[in-house]
Amino acid sequence: MPKAFLSKRLVAVVVLVSFMLLFGLSSIASAADEVPGAPQLQANSAILMDAETGQVLYQLNADTAAPPASMSKMMTEYLVSMAVKQGKLSWDDKVTIGENAAKQIGSRILLAQGDQHTIKELYIAMAVYSANDATVQLAEEVSGSEEAFVKLMNETAVELGMTQSHFINSTGLDRADMPEKYRPTSVEGETMMSARDAATLAYRIIKDDPEFLETAKIQEYKFRQRDKEPMKNWNWMLGSNKDNPTLRKFAYEGVDGLKTGHTSSAGNCFTGTALRNGTRLIAVVMGVPGGVNDGKRFLETAKLFDYGFKSFEKKTIIDAKAVVPEHESLKVKKGKSTEVPVVTASDLTVLVPKGAVVEPVVQEVKSTEDPLVAPIAQGDKVGTVTYKYKDPSTQDEKTVTIDLIASEEVDKASWWRLLLRAIGNFFSSLFQGIVDLF
After folding, report:
1. What is the tally of structural domains in the chain?
2. Which of 60, 199, 315, 414 could bridge across to 49 with cysteines, CB 3.0–4.6 Å?
């Protein structure tokens, strides 16, 4: 083959590779610059959420379903706690360990069939040590069998708005790692969850069961008196680990939960929550590369928390008891006045990037009745106002509806006043009709 031809091909390859590199680098730079200051994560998916409002501050492939490993135990924790709140179980109930629990592999507290422990002891083993055997036994206590409990998990996921979640067991283990006799036949596939769903579940736990964090932040717990060593919490990010020489570099001020996860198919996962200066955030990372013992998932989570706490501030974009421009009052029937002045019942406070401006626009105002009927007391809910605004952190279009309340009372009019008003309205409409003829 002629040398000239080889030279031309070599030049063409160099140009093509240079173009691809240039295009790729510019694409990465463009993605990084899309949200100024946003962290660059080594994770397959991630999300950062405000635990008070559910507002999303950062997202990376947040709706991609992936194996969550033991993060799926958050659903088991939630359902066990709800069963206790509903009186179906008691924390002090003593239960006997069954075959399915005793045969579990992976992280476990080495329960033997026939052992007896309280619901609370098993719950702590699940929350602190991610014990698969304790988790399965709790699932069976709630629903009679793990398979029936999985049905409840999937039904609850739908109720909570977890659109990319599917559970096949209570633990997050791959199907092949379950005892063969107890592998589910009523559900197919493997357990899957998106980062957004994990954050949504954490959000519901914090809202509905805030006392769970008292369990989640336990550093270590001696399960049996005869045990030589206590269980150690897999969450190395706990703020209390600042005094632990081994884990100090992972400790993050304010972290008090929630759940780690690791399998070969899931990689390293973590759903964490931290409270600082009155603001609580939820962060999820999934598919973080590396080994389970290198702590990289916690360092990636720290990037999210740093971004949230350092780059955002709370801003009230709609004040409570504020007048809605051009909708200062609503019509009233049978009242001394024909209108009632209205104001917003509550404010709307969101986390925004420092220095950002958010301008909500009124989209719709509605009365609870059309028209309202007197008497109306001051403070009564009389309608709603819907605002639309652009979320400054994600650029998503958002809508929010706030109640409207009466800022003054409107007493019911006497029959005499109503009669005179009706006569006046009659002649007014009659006069207007005559005017319209000309």
Report:
1. 2
2. 199
Find, among 356, 358, 324, 359, the residue nearest to 341 by Cα.
324
**HEC profile for 100-128?**
HHHCCCCCCCCCCCCCEEEHHHHHHHHHH
Mean pLDDT over 155-160 rounds to: 98
Is-contact 126 134, C-beta < 8 A?
A: yes
Q: How many CB atoms lie within 10 A of CB 83?
A: 18
Q: What CATH number has the domain bearing residue 366?
A: 2.60.410.10
DSSP letters, 279-309, are EEEEEEEEEE-S-TTS-HHHHHHHHHHHHHH
Question: What is the four-CA torsion angle of 382, 387, 393, 396, rounded to 10 degrees?
Answer: 120
**Cα–Cα distance for residue pair 257/259, rounded to 1 Å:** 6
Is 14 within a domain? Answer: no
**CB atoms < 10 A from the CB of 51, how many?**
20
Positions annotated as catalytic residues are: 70, 73, 130
Angle 68-123-216 from CA coordinates, rounded to 5°: 65
Could you give the residue ranges of the DSSP H alpha helices within 266-408? Answer: 296-311
Residues 6+ apart with CB under 8 A from 252: 237, 239, 272, 274, 298, 301, 302, 305
Going across the sheet that includes 372-373, the strands are 361-367, 381-390, 397-406, 339-344, 329-333, 372-373
Q: What is the mean pLDDT of the chain?
A: 88
Cα four-point dihedral sign 198, 200, 204, 210: positive
Residues 250 and 342 in one domain: no
Cβ atoms 382, 339 nearer than 8 A: no
> Helical H runs in 34-168?
73-85, 99-102, 119-129, 132-143, 146-159
Model confidence pLDDT, tens digit, residues 46-91: 999 999 999 999 999 999 999 999 999 999 999 999 999 999 999 9
Same domain, 323 and 300: no
Q: Which residues pair with 269 in a beta bridge?
A: 261
* Amino acid identity, position 196: R
- Whether residue 195 contacts residue 46, with contact meaning beta carbons closer than 8 Å, is answered with yes
- The predicted model gives 122-150 an average pLDDT of 97
Determine how β-strand 220-221 pairs with β-strand 116-118.
Answer: unpaired
Identify the residue whose tokens are 């005179």: 420
The secondary structure element, H or E, covering residue 338 is: none
